[in-house]
Write a structure and sequence with these properties.
- The complex is a heterotrimer.
- Chain A has one domain: NADH:ubiquinone oxidoreductase-like, 20kDa subunit (Rossmann fold), CATH 3.40.50.700.
- The mean pLDDT of chain A is about 95.
- The longest helix of chain A has 13 residues.
- Chain A contains seven helices and seven strands; from the N terminus they run E-H-H-E-E-E-H-E-H-H-E-E-H-H.
- In chain B, the strands form three sheets. A five-stranded mixed β-sheet of chain B has the order 10-9-13-11-12. In chain B, strands 2-1-3-4 form a four-stranded mixed β-sheet, with helices on one face.
- Chain B is an alpha/beta fold.
- The chains are: A alpha/beta, B alpha/beta, C alpha+beta.
Chain lengths: ~180, ~550, ~240
């Protein structure tokens, strides 16, 4: 039996969910028996593969590039998992929505910059006016809330998913967990 | 005041009127007044005085077909003139006794033919600021009859027998309500008249309060006698200054004549009325919110039970009826319950006043027997939609009502039939839409109204209507998806079933009814990004930061 | 039968229970270990029936009743946990989360917030409705307390505690509908208001909307349990 193709994706988030994922520690070895990590910030693959079985997506959609990415991921993924509060609620990245992106750019590229005060126009994707959760753009199959979801949550949820067992996510985790 | 004295007043008014050969009635209601009927009346009075003819120029309340205003009716010939500019005053006076003025003649026989006037029986015939005019048309006869000849139980029996149901929207049987308040224990009870008419496009109650204020007072006094109350409140919107001023005058006159106050008609019955002004909140038309507002609190509704009938104003048993309900009382008492019961449909008796507005030839007030077909109201009385357009839907019941499509126009108007079609009777607003109306936009308009008028107390109404508005905005600007539509429908169910008061519970009606009858328009907006009526701009704000 | 001996019997979730006349469905359910979710209700404060989470179904009626204010009737058959109710409860919670900016991860009440716990209890893992992302103020003018309107769910416990328990009537509501806001005095800053600094509003606040400045952090849960005790002592006086 071929291994399950697993991807992890990092959009607008702090990478804390990925860290928590790694907190599965020795259980990662068991997981590695069952899955191939085909795309992830943790592996050196640049292009999203044609066919992925499970994708764990961290982070909210904040830029044009994020939006393109999430749509592409959806098109090539069987089971899309929204990983953590940023992906599900827009969380901390979404806190700029109430004031709009301009003051944020002002703060980052002028007030806090000692030299070269300018907003970059090349090499960086354009910001969306509002940072939004991924389910605003694509269909999500499984939601794992938490900031971040615990390693235990990842382990239980992934095991259930790989074995086809039912899972009770609210018993595992919650918003802000 | 006795019945004989009342009759004497009526006699003297009739004798006074008999001195004149002609009565020139000028409609001074808001629609006509805004088109210059005040100036017209002045001119008519001047011309009449100079003419040497015996002419009585009288200001009256709303005559009905507002879109034809300013209206003038000449009696005894019953000639109706429309769109009369002040400049025509002299010609009208000159023509009295001669041939009618052809270019001013208002040919609305069809319009009036199907109407039955009970609530509006005096509208256009009396000067609203003259109590004697009202008395001359049998005014206060019912009150005195009740006080001198009937028991409270007898009055309630007559109202129950009539089959009258609350005209404020809910359609609760009036007799039953009165009976409940009458039976409630406690020495202090209140009668409240709900004049917080806030539906967009509805002005039935305003017209009654402005055009025939004593009718409301008489109805309230009869109710007070029946339920055992000695104090009443009329809750009127502050946006109706003329109604307030007419009611104030009427109250003063009625007190002066001893028809309000202590020991009315030398009986032990005492009753007086106070006016309370609403500050413009639509939700204060909901009875528990209205009570809170009269008490001086924030106008928010509370859960019922307890109903106001057992615990209302300051915790006392309180009878709350709408203006139009009270306006029906005197004629029912005078003519008997059976007379009223014989009009209307099986479970909705009597007549109903509707405010016809929108894309229709004869906008204005109409009073029709219950059970009349919608088609008759729209095509015959309303004169149909203007040339070159086709009828699309009629929205009844104000912002919380539903949109009824053309294929259902042959249904008779009744509380139950409208409910079955996904709409409500409401207070009687009737907005006609033609092919130039986009139903998504219509739904969005009404949801926006409910959203801004929500009191904010319960979550489904406060946040639910706002979310419905967001989703409808998406659909109407071309960014909506089929998932949004599904979400919208889901949300409608929760707002309808979980909201605290009638405002929230009915707020989804415009959405649900347009989805039921005009779903294809929603789909067009979503799938083809096209507004079939060409109303929606389909222009969403830019999502990407430039 | 005297009034004191008068008893109502009814069933809640098919469990037979007895009650005194005038008791609410919520009281009787909780006496019998049946959980009905609530947010605006708090033991010791008057009930307003505003959050609608405690809606229950009554056999023979299509209308849903708020258990916190609906009183028991003889022979009533109450259901507190049907699919229809669960759906409404989840939607109501979604409406709350989307209404203001409830960012649990950076909230002082993370871990002991009634809204957060309720979402978990009701199985809410995401919000389908569009977040409104409206801008709200934070009033930190008071030397001891802060009001963060981003996290307010308008349960009005603060308004009721201030009026009914403290008797100060400092908190009130302004605006209508989605623009409602709890305010101190006539929209004065909290620090400049007639606040008596008793802190009851903070203790009864179910979320991180009102909090004590010195007690930020998950180890500092609020303690609204003082209310029934306070009322009991008051009655005993």
């Amino acid at each position: 039996m071929s291994k399950v193709k697993l991807a992890t994706v990092w959009l607008d988030g702090c990478s804390g969910c990925h860290m928590s994922f790694l907190d599965m520690d020795e259980r990662l070895l068991e997981l590695a028996e069952l899955v191939d990590v085909v795309y992830s910030p943790l592996v050196d693959v640049k292009e999203y593969p044609e066919e992925v079985d499970i994708a764990l997506v961290e982070g909210a959609v904040a830029t044009v590039a994020d939006e393109e990415k999430i749509r592409k991921i959806r098109a090539h993924t069987r089971t899309l998992i929204a990983m953590g509060d940023c992906a599900i609620t827009s969380n901390v990245p979404g806190m700029r929505n109430a004031i709009g992106p301009e003051p944020v750019l002002q703060r980052a590229y002028f007030e806090n910059a000692s030299a070269q005060q300018q907003i970059p126009t090349e090499g960086l994707p354009k910001l969306l006016r509002t940072v939004r959760p991924i389910q605003d753009f694509v269909k999500v199959d499984v939601y794992l809330p938490g900031c971040p979801p615990s390693a235990e949550t990842f382990h239980t949820a992934l095991t259930a998913l790989l074995t086809g067992e039912p899972m009770d996510i609210p018993a595992l985790t919650r918003f802000g967990a | 005041m006795t019945i004989e004295e009342l009759e004497q007043i009526a006699q003297s008014v009739r004798q006074e009127n008999a001195k004149y050969d002609y009565e020139v009635n000028v409609c001074m209601d808001l629609a006509c007044a805004s088109q210059g009927s005040g100036k017209l009346k002045e001119e008519l009075e001047k011309s009449a005085a100079d003419s040497g003819k015996r002419i009585l120029v009288r200001r009256t309340g709303c005559m009905g077909p507002c879109s034809h205003g300013p209206l003038v009716r000449i009696d005894p010939e019953e000639r109706l003139y429309e769109h009369v500019p002040p400049a025509k005053a002299q010609r009208i006076v000159d023509s009295l006794g001669g041939a009618p003025i052809a270019e001013l003649q208002c040919d609305l026989n069809e319009h009036f033919e199907s109407q039955v006037r009970v609530v509006l029986e005096n509208a256009g015939y009396i000067d609203p600021e003259k109590m004697d005019d009202y008395i001359a048309r049998d005014g206060y006869k019912a009150l005195l009859t009740v006080l001198l000849e009937m028991t409270p139980g007898g009055v309630i029996h007559r109202i129950t027998e009539s089959g009258l149901r609350g005209r404020g929207g809910g359609g609760y049987p009036t007799g039953l309500k009165w009976g409940t308040v009458a039976k409630a224990a406690g020495g202090v009870k209140y009668v409240v008249c709900n004049g917080d008419e806030g539906d967009p496009g509805a002005f039935m109650d305003r017209s009654v309060m402005e055009g025939d204020p004593h009718r409301v007072l008489e109805g309230m006094a009869i109710a007070a006698y029946a339920v055992g109350a000695s104090k009443g409140f009329i809750y009127v919107r502050a946006e109706y200054p003329i109604a307030v001023s007419r009611l104030t005058t009427a109250l003063r006159e009625a007190r002066r004549r001893g028809l309000l106050g202590n020991n009315i008609a030398n009986t032990p019955f005492s009753f007086d009325v106070e006016i309370r002004l609403g500050a413009g909140a639509f939700v204060c038309g909901e009875e528990t919110a209205l009570i809170a507002s009269i008490e001086g609190k924030r106008g928010t509704p509370r859960t019922r039970p307890p109903y106001p009938a057992s615990s209302g104003l300051w915790g006392k048993p309180t009878l709350i009826n709408n203006v139009e309900t009270f306006a029906n009382i005197a004629p029912i008492v005078r003519n008997g319950g059976k007379w009223f019961h014989d009009m209307g449909s099986e479970r909705s008796k009597g007549t109903k006043v509707f405010a016809l507005t929108g894309k229709i030839a004869n906008t204005g007030l109409v009073e029709v027997p219950m059970g009349i077909k919608l088609r008759e109201i729209i095509e015959k009385i309303g004169g149909g939609v203007p040339e070159g357009h086709t009828f699309k839907a009629v929205q009844t019941g104000g912002p919380s009502g539903g949109c009824i499509p053309a294929e259902m126009l042959d249904v008779g108007v009744s509380y139950d039939a409208l409910l079955k079609m996904g709409s409500i009777m409401g207070s009687g607003g009737m907005i006609v839409m033609d092919d130039s109306s986009c139903m998504v936009n219509v739904a969005r308009f009404f949801v926006e109204f409910c959203m801004t008028e929500s009191c904010g107390k319960c979550i489904p109404c406060r946040a639910g209507t706002a979310q419905m508005h967001t989703l409808l905005t998406r659909i109407s600007n071309g960014t909506g998806t089929l998932e949004d539509l599904e979400l919208l429908e889901d949300l409608c169910v929760t707002v309808k079933e979980a909201s605290l008061c009638g405002l929230g519970q009915t707020a989804p009606n415009p959405v649900l009814s347009t989805l039921k009858y005009f779903r294809n328009e929603y789909i067009e907006h979503i799938v083809n990004k096209r507004c079939p009526a060409g109303v929606c701009g389909m222009e969403a704000a830019a999502e990407v930061l430039a | 039968m005297s009034a004191e001996n008068d008893v109502r019997t009814l069933t809640i979730d098919e469990q037979e229970v007895s009650a005194r006349p005038g008791q609410t469905i919520l009281e009787v359910a909780r006496e019998n270990g049946i959980n009905i979710p609530t947010l605006c209700h708090l033991d010791g404060l008057s009930d307003v029936g505003a959050c609608r989470l405690c809606l229950v179904e009554i056999k023979g009626s299509n209308k849903l009743l708020p258990a916190c204010v609906a009183t028991v009737q003889e022979g009533m058959e109450v259901s507190t946990d049907t699919e229809r109710l669960r759906r409404h409860r989840r939607t109501i919670l979604e409406l709350l989360f989307a209404e203001r900016n409830h960012v649990c991860s950076v909230c002082v009440s993370n871990g002991h917030c009634e809204l957060q716990a309720m979402a978990q209890e009701q199985g809410l893992t995401h919000v389908r409705l569009p977040y409104r992302y409206a801008k709200f103020d934070v009033d930190a003018s008071h030397d001891r307390f802060t009001a963060d309107h981003n996290r307010c769910i308008l349960c009005l416990r603060c308004v009721r505690a201030c009026a009914e328990i403290e008797g100060a009537h400092v908190w009130d509501v302004m605006g209508r509908g989605i623009d409602c806001l709890v305010i101190t005095d006539l929209h004065e800053q909290w620090g400049n208001s007639t606040c008596t600094r008793c802190g009851k509003c903070v203790q009864v606040c179910p979320t991180g909307a009102l909090f004590e400045k010195s007690k930020i952090g998950t180890e500092r849960p609020k303690d609204p349990q003082f209310l029934p005790y306070l009322n009991l002592m008051r009655e005993a006086q």
